Amino acid sequence: MNALSKQISSAQTKNQLFEMVYDDTNRCIQCGYCLPACPTYESMGKESASPRGRIHLVKMAAEGKIDLEHLAEPIDLCLGCRACEVACPVNVPYGHILESAKTVIESDQKDGSMGGKIKKFVLKKLFPYPNRMRMIGNAYWLYQKTGLQAIVQKTKIMDKISEPMAQLEKVLPHVQSPTKRYKWGEVIPAKGEKKATVAFFAGCITDAMLHKINRLTVELLTVVGCEVVIPKMQNCCGALHAHQGFTEDAKQLAKKNIIAFEQSNADYYINNAGGCGAMLREYDHLFANDPEWYERAVHFVSRTRDIHEILVQYGPLPFKKEWNGIITYQDSCHLRNVQGVYEEPRQLIQSIPGVHYVELPTADRCCASGGIYNLLHFNESMKILDSKMKDVLRTRAKTVVTANPGCLLQMRLGIEREGKSNEIQGLHLVEVLAEACGIQ
Fold it and tell me: How many whole angstroms separate alpha carbon 433 and alpha carbon 417?
C-alpha cells in the first residue's frame, strides 16, 4: 500500500470511529469518578491507562488530532472490566467506546506478528467450531491421563515456549473423561416436578477443558426442577472476538446462537460463565443498527440468565453436606458490572450448611484475567493479580470461589504464585454447590 492509499485508509477509519462513538465520548465530563475503579490506572499510574484518559484519546483520534497507532496501545492495555461504567455518574457507555475503538484499530492496523497471527488463527479457526474445541479438550485429557503433563512440567519445556502458557498450564484442573460430556441436542429431564425448560449454553473453554463444571451445572438445574436442553447448533458467544476488534465475526457467531436457542423453545437460556453471559446479554447492542436481527436479539437477551439467578429463583437447593473452612468470593467483572448479578452468588454461598463466608474486600476489583489479557499482557496482569492475592490471604479462606472460567484459572494461578496450592483451593461456585448437595 503506497503512502496516498494509507492516508485515504486512515481517514476512512477515523471517519468510521467518529460516526461510531464521537457523541458517546462527548458524554464524558472528565470528573474522575472512574479513576479509583480502574485496575490499570491503579497499577500503571498514568492518565492514558484510565477510562477518562482512553475516552479522551478516542475522541482525539475521531477528530483526527492523533493517529490511530497512538491510540492502539492504551486501548489494548484496558482490561475491559467495565467497573468504570458502574462508577460513572453520567452513564458513559465505556464498553461500546472500547470495542468500537478496537474494531477500528483492528481494521486499520493488521497485526502481522507471530502473536497476531496465532491470535487470529485461534479466534477464527478454533473458537467458532465446537467440535474442534472438543478435540483439543480430548487431547488435553490424554495429555494428563498418560502422564505426559508431568514430564513436560518437570522438564519445563513449556516455560521455554511461553511463560504465560506455562503458568496457566500448571493450574488447569484435572480434565474429566470426554465420555462424561453431555451430547449436543440432548435433553435432560427435571428431577421431580418440572418447573421450567431451560436451554444451556456450554461455552468454548468450559466445554472443552472444564466440562465437569458444565455437567454439575446441568445436574443442579435438574434438582431444582428444570428440564435442560443442550441446543445442538450452538457455538462460541463471540466475546473474545468482540473484545479483540473482530466485530463482524462476533455478529456471525451471535446469529448462529440466536437461531439455535430459538429452536429450543426454552423458557430461559442459561450460562455459567460471567464473560460469556455478558456477551449474550448484549446481543441487542451488537445488532442495534441491524433491523433484521435486532428484535430477535432483544428476545434472546430477555430470556438469558446466569445459572445463579435460576438456582435462587427455583431453589432452595437440596443440601446434604456441611462445608468446612472459610470461603471467599471473587466477582466476575462481567457478571457484576455488565449483567448486574451480585447478590445471588453470595446468597447461594451463605445458604450452604455450616459455611463460614468472609467477604473479599476487593471482590469487585478485576483479577486481571480479562479473557486473554493475561496471555497478551502477562506482566501487567500478574501485577494486578499479586496485589489481589494479598487481600485473599487476609481473609484466611481455604476456598476461593468465582463464577467465570477465566477468573477461576486466574485465581488458581494467584494461589500457585503465593505457594499456597496445598492450603487453598480455587473452585467455580457450581462446584461448591454441587459438592454441598452430594453431587459428584
Answer: 26
Complete edge-to-edge strand list for the sheet that includes strand 399-402: 356-357, 326-329, 399-402, 425-428
- Residue closest to 134 by CA, chosen among 200, 67, 77, 209: 209
Q: Does the N-terminal peptide bond of residue 316 adopt cis geometry, omega within 30 degrees of 0?
A: yes
Residue type at position 90: V
Strands 226-229, 187-188: pairing kind: antiparallel
- 138-193 residue pLDDT tens: 999 999 999 999 998 889 888 888 888 888 888 988 999 999 999 999 999 999 99
- Amino acid sitting at position 274: G
- The CA distance from 176 to 180, in Å, is 7
Place of cell 470511529: 17
What pTM was computed for the model?
0.93
Q: For the chain, which domains are there?
A: 3-108 (1.10.1060.10), 319-436 (3.40.50)
91 backbone dihedrals φ, ψ, rounded to 5°: 60, 45
